[in-house]
Amino acid sequence: MAELNKKLNENMYLCHIDDIEEGASKGFLSDESGSDLFFIVKQEGQLFGWRNACPHVDGAPMAWRKDAYMNSQHTFISCHAHGALFEPNTGLCVQGPCLGKSLKPVPVYVNQAGKVSILLTDIR
Ligand code: FES
C-alpha cells in the first residue's frame, strides 16, 4: 500500500513546454477508443490542464480529432459535440448549452528545464 501511495505521488512526465504551440492543445492518456483522459492548452505562454469531459453531458469527450480542443481562432476551448466554448485559463463555459459551468482542472507542473508533468494523484 505504501508503495502504491508513493507511486501515485510521483510526477508523470508528459512533454516539453515547447511541444505545445501558443493557442494549441494536446491530449494525454488516451483510452482504447482514442479518447484522451485530459488535455493541456497553451495561452500567453502558460499551460492549463483540463479533464476531457464536457460539463454539458457528463463525461462526453470534447475533441473532434486528436489534440483538437480549440476553436478555429485558437481563442477558446471548444466542445465539438454541441459547440460550447470555454475560457482556456479558467475552464468556464462562456457560450453554449453548459453556460456558466466549468471544466474540471488538472494541475500542470513545468520545471526549470521546461519539462511538463502532472501528479498521478491529480487524475485518479
Ligand atoms: S457535450 Fe459538450 S457541448 Fe454538448
TrEMBL record:
GO terms for molecular function: 2 iron, 2 sulfur cluster binding; metal ion binding. Pfam families: Rieske (PF00355). It comes from the Bacteria. Keywords: 2Fe-2S, Iron, Iron-sulfur, Metal-binding. Residues 12-120 form the Rieske domain. InterPro entries: Rieske_2Fe-2S, Rieske_2Fe-2S_sf. PANTHER family: PTHR40261, RIESKE DOMAIN-CONTAINING PROTEIN (PTHR40261:SF1). This is Nitrite reductase/ring-hydroxylating ferredoxin subunit. The lineage of its organism: Bacteria, Pseudomonadati, Pseudomonadota, Gammaproteobacteria, Oceanospirillales.
